[in-house]
Amino acid sequence: MGSAPVLAKANIPAPAPLPTAPGREEEQGDGDGPPRIVEFDKKSRWGIQVGAFAQSEQAENMAMKARNTVPSLLDGGVISVVPLTKKNGKVLHRARVYGLSKRDAYRACKLLERRHIPCMELRGPETLEMASLPDS
Q1: Fold held by 7-18+38-130
Q2: How many beta carbons lie within 10 A of that of residue 112, not counting itself?
């Protein structure tokens, strides 16, 4: 299996999170490059949400924990931290993994919940904007 994109942002106005590679930290780029677009075919437009957190780093860590807990189903998924501004002005950062089949999303949630990781399945977007990658 090849290296999959890891961190994405939803198509909503918010600061772009920086990508990281599975299992290791990437050096952060300056973010000036154009975002890459990841497209999902009909069979991989599903995802899971494994929590909502006050800090984006917490959300990213939980999404990575979920992927590491069931790598057979989530290793090729795209981790996405999706901000949500509540009516009171507080921002929640939703931890998601996209790029799954409907079946894999439901199976992953069952396995995660058995390990006491909250999970819900969701239909994902057709595309995600990826933060620009750092120069090598």
Answers
A1: Alpha-Beta Plaits (3.30.70)
A2: 20
- The residues spanned by each domain of the chain are 7-18+38-130
Of 134, 136, 13, 131, which is closest to residue 79 (Cα–Cα)? 131
Flag whether pLDDT at 13 surpasses 50.
Answer: no
Between 31 and 131, whose confidence is greater? 131
Q: Provide CB contacts within 8 A for 64, sequence distance 6+.
A: 79
Can you give the pTM of this predicted structure?
0.69
Alpha carbon distance 44, 105 (integer Å): 10
Residue 113 φ/ψ, nearest 5 degrees: -65, -35
- Strand, helix or coil for residue 7: strand
